[in-house]
Every structure is written in structure tokens, then in C-alpha cells.
Design goal:
By secondary structure, the protein is α/β, with parallel strands linked by helices. The protein has helices at residues 9-15, 22-32, 46-55, 115-119, 127-141, 161-173, 190-198, 214-220, 229-243, 261-271, 296-308; strands at residues 61-68, 73-79, 85-92, 97-100, 104-106, 121-124, 148-151, 182-186, 204-208, 247-253, 277-282, 313-315, 349-352. The longest helix is centred in the middle third of the chain and has 15 residues, at 127-141. Bound molecules: S-adenosyl-L-homocysteine.
Length: 368
């Protein structure tokens, strides 16, 4: 049985074949445009609401919900069919509300300093599982409107290209998100960047660079051995030229590893011709990587060096570190687990929820 957001419009039509024709569109709009559950679709007859609630099950089962930053950051731990787990983060700022969604359960890219990479790959997410994360976050954000969606949760979006792109289309067409408010972040999968270059929806692209020389990048981001910097730079150049869109680079600042003046110089030389914007992220702690993040003063100096070299750079505000919701900390580990987020003295609220479980088998290799 397809889940609520994995069913296509055509299959929904078949499911509602014994109903008046207009019902299909009504239910579709109820789910996507109005973010309603079938039970909340008050424009439907009561018995149809309850029937749909059963035949269109949800895909995400909420296991845990953690709250930090005075309620401005929420992280969900969801269990999926087959038992895989993912996390989704909602971040409220004065001027925007952002959802950070997962594209895979786990990740096969093996970046050492990232908790998702440390945990390995479990499976690809379906389009509906991606959409449902957004719907959950958008409902939670109410009465504020969810304004941005970043594919920066667990997984490598460009290693699950078709499903991620189908989700992007649906978010744009049926949920009404402007493509300019969607950002796909990649470790640098060149074939995926090429495909994005030719897509008609102008989503933002962020590339997780972290090192601008191959020797260091091979160690930090192992996929660099397959897609080295020169080739990555060419794909980025083509992206910028053909699409006319702005590119950004993410750079997790790691103490003594990639925060030296020579690193800033290499980064500037790589980013400047692409007119790319650089997002500096002070490294967040993860259980499997013991090097520290660059101290605050070092972050400031690194940024000044970049600015002096003609590169636009901003420092990303860290959110949700206490609940392991910050960049690179998503590992789908419950808080009471030994490798879970460690207490920092900051009180967090924790809610454990048991929803309904569904079974559906998906076996697919997330490797590329
Ligand atoms: N796989 C995609 C999407 C994940 S985005 C990608 O790599 O782009 C998550 C971002 O957080 C990436 O830029 C990633 O490199 C960065 N990151 C990973 N571990 C981190 C850590 N410990 N501290 C700060 N940033 C980290």
C-alpha cells in the first residue's frame, strides 16, 4: 500500500474510482496544498475521511522529538518502514523558518567528521518520505510559514537523484514552495551537478568543499578521489555559467586542519572565479572525530582572510548542538543511547512518541 505522500495523482484517482471525480483533486489538495491529514479534511464525507486515514498510511513514525534554542530548534527522530531511522530539523529565525530534511537513511559518502557518515548507509528515502518530512515541519511551524527547505539532513541528495528531484518538483508544484527557497547540498557528485545544471527549476546548490587541495580533501571527503577538485571546479563552472544561479560552498572549520592561512588562500583561489559564496561552519562535535572545531577568534580571522581575498563569506549560526541537531550531527541515535547527544547542562525537552508502524520493503544500494 503506498503511503500518503508516495501515492501518485493517478493512483489516487484509481483508489477513489467509486467517488465523484472531483474528490481526487480535493484529497490531493488537502494533502499537499493544505497539509491536512485525511481526518482533518472536513470537506469530505466522514466515512471517506476515516477510510483514507487507513488506506493512505503515513510513512514516518515519530520516535523522539527534541527541542533546543528556547523552542526555536526542533529535531525529530523518525522510524521508517523496515526500521530505518532518519532525522529532520526545523529551525525558526526572526526572518525565516527553515526545514532541514534527510534524503537517505544514513550516508555512504564516509566523510570522517560527519556523524551520518560515521554511521554508514541504510537505504534510499522515497519521494513520499522526503515530502512527509517537509509536511511535518510545515505543520509544526504554523502559524508561521515554512520558508526554506534545505536538503542538508542525513544522506547525499545527489546519490538519490530521481527521488529527490521528484520531491523538489512536488514541493514546487503542489506545496507551493518557490524553487529559490530550496537548497540541495552535495558532497560533490559531478554527474548529479551536471543534471541539476540542466533542470528547469532554479533550486540553490551548495557544495560541501571543506578543503581546496586534493590531498586534504581526499582525507576529509573521500568521494574526492572519484571526483577530484579540478573536475569538480569544472562542473561548478558549467553550473554557474549555464544556470546563471549562485553557488555556495560549505566549509566546516576544523582546528589546525583546514583553518590555516594557506587553506583560506586555496579556498579563495577556488571560489573566486566561480563567484561562489562561502558558508563557514565551525565544526560541530561528533562521536567519531576527535579534532575540535576552530575557536571563535580563528573563525573570525579565517573569514577576514577570505574577505580580504575577495570572497564573500558568512559564518553559519550553530543551532541545536545540545540535541545533536547541528550540521553533521544527525545520526538517528536516541538521546539516551551511549553515543547519543551528551548532556551539556542545557535543559532540553524530550518527547517520545509511538505511532503506527507499516511494512514495505525497499532494498536499494545508496552507493554510486
Ligand atoms: N551529503 C550532503 C548533504 C549533507 S549537508 C553534503 O555533504 O553536502 C550537511 C553539511 O554539514 C555538509 O556541508 C557537511 O559537510 C557538513 N558537516 C558534516 N559534519 C559536520 C560537522 N561535524 N560540523 C559541521 N559541519 C559538518
Amino acid at each position: 500500500m503506498p503511503t500518503r505522500y508516495d501515492i501518485s495523482l493517478a493512483s489516487l484517482g484509481e483508489l477513489l474510482a467509486d467517488e465523484p471525480a472531483y474528490r481526487t483533486k480535493q484529497v490531493w489538495t488537502g494533502l499537499h496544498g493544505k497539509l491536512r491529514t485525511p481526518l482533518e479534511m472536513t470537506d469530505l464525507p466522514v466515512d471517506l475521511r476515516s477510510r483514507l486515514e487507513v488506506i493512505l498510511p503515513t510513512a514516518l513514525r515519530e520516535k523522539e522529538r527534541s527541542v533546543a534554542d528556547d523552542g526555536e530548534t526542533i529535531k525529530w527522530l523518525f522510524e521508517l518502514d523496515g526500521g530505518a531511522r532518519i532525522e529532520t530539523v526545523l529551525m525558526a529565525y526572526p526572518d525565516r523558518v527553515t526545514a532541514c530534511v534527510s534524503s537517505q537513511a544514513g550516508c555512504a559518502m564516509d566523510c570522517q567528521f560527519c556523524a551520518t557518515g560515521q554511521a554508514g548507509f541504510t537505504r534510499q528515502l522515497t519521494t513520499g518520505e522526503i515530502i512527509e518530512q517537509v509536511v511535518t515541519a510545515a505543520r509544526e511551524a504554523l502559524p508561521r510559514r515554512l520558508s526554506r527547505i534545505v536538503f542538508m539532513g542525513m544522506g547525499e541528495p545527489l546519490a538519490n537523484y530521481d527521488r529527490v528531484w521528484a520531491a523538489v518538483r512536488r514541493l514546487h508544484e503542489d506545496l507551493g514552495f518557490s524553487a529559490r527557497h530550496l537548497t540541495i547540498s552535495t558532497v560533490g557528485i559531478i554527474p548529479g551537478i551536471r543534471r541539476l545544471t540542466d533542470e528547469d527549476l532554479p533550486v540553490n546548490l551548495a557544495v560541501s568543499l571543506h578543503a581546496a587541495n586534493d590531498e586534504l580533501r581526499n582525507r576529509l571527503v573521500p568521494i574526492n578521489r572519484r571526483y577530484p577538485l579540478a573536475a569538480l571546479g569544472e562542473a561548478c563552472q558549467e553550473y554557474v555559467e549555464k544556470s546563471g544561479r549562485r553557488l555556495s560552498f560549505e566549509w566546516a572549520l576544523i582546528d589546525g586542519v583546514n583553518d590555516r592561512p594557506s587553506d583560506a588562500a586555496e579556498l579563495a583561489a577556488f571560489a573566486r572565479p566561480l563567484r561562489a559564496h562561502v558558508n563557514l561552519i565551525p565544526l560541530n562535535p561528533t562521536p567519531g572525530y576527535l579534532v575540535q572545531g576552530t575557536p571563535r577568534a580563528g573563525v573570525r580571522d579565517f573569514r577576514s582572510l577570505l574577505t580580504g581575498l575577495g570572497v564573500n563569506a558568512t559564518v553559519r549560526i550553530t543551532r541545536g548542538q545540545d540535541i545533536a541537531a547541528a550540521c553533521g550531527q544527525l545520526a538517528s541515535v536516541p538521546r539516551d543511547h551511549p553515543t547519543g547527544p551528551r548532556g551539556s547542562g542545557v535543559p532540553v525537552r524530550l518527547v517520545t512518541t509511538e505511532g503506527q508502524n507499516r511494512s514495505r520493503d525497499i532494498t536499494e544500494d545508496g552507493r554510486i
